[in-house]
Amino acid sequence: MNKKPKTVLYRRRKEQKTDYKRRLAQLKSDQQRLVIRYTNQRIITQVVEFNPTGDKVLAAVDSFALKALGWKHSCKNIPASYLTGLLIAKAAVAVGCKDVILDAGMKTHQKKGKTYAFLKGAVEGGLSIPYGDESIFPDNSRLTGEHITKYLKTLNQEADVAKNLAEVKKKIK
Prior knowledge:
30% of the residues are buried. The protein is 40% helix and 14% strand. It has helices at 11-14, 20-28, 65-68, 78-94, 114-124, 140-143, 146-154, 161-172; strands at 32-38, 43-49, 56-62, 100-103. Helix 4 runs parallel beside helix 5 (114-124) and helix 4 packs parallel to helix 8 (161-172). The longest helix is centred in the middle third of the chain and has 17 residues, at 78-94. The chain has one domain: Nucleotidyltransferase, domain 5 (2-Layer Sandwich), CATH 3.30.420.100. It has 173 residues and is α+β, with helices and mostly antiparallel strands. It is globular and about 70 Å long. The protein starts with 10 loop residues before the first helix and ends with a helix. A hairpin with a 6-residue loop joins strand 2 (43-49) and strand 3. The chain has a four-stranded mixed beta sheet with strand order 3-2-1-4, with helices on one face.
C-alpha cells in the first residue's frame, strides 16, 4: 500500500511563482529570456535559454555586484536597477546574446518603476528587447537618483547619488 501524498497539479501557480500561460507563450517565441526577480535586498537577473531538460543560464548578474564597482547606496532602488540593467546587458552581449524578451515574473509592474528602469539600462547596454513606447521609462532625474539626494539632504546627510551613478556607469562601460 502506497501512502504517498497526492501531487497537486500546478503547485507553482497556487504559490504564485509561475504563470504557465505566459511561460508557454515566451517559450514558443524561441528567444532567450531576460529574467528579473526582486528580493528584499537585491535584484537578481539572468539571461536564460530554454532546454527540454531544464533552462540554461547564459549570463547572470546580482545587484550586489555594483558594490564591487563602487556603488555606495541601496542595491534595490531605481538607480541600482538601471545600473544592474547595464551590467546584465554587458554580460549578455559578451556571451553573444542580443535579442531577448523580458520575463518580469508574476508581479504587476508599475510604469516608470524599477522594472522599467532595469529595462532602460538593458536597452542602453546593447540588448534588443521589445517594449511599448518611451513613456514607460522613468525620468532621467529618477534614474540618476536626484530624488534620493534631495531626501538625504533633508536628513542632513551628504550623498550625491548622481555623481556615484556616473562613476559606476563609467566602470561598467
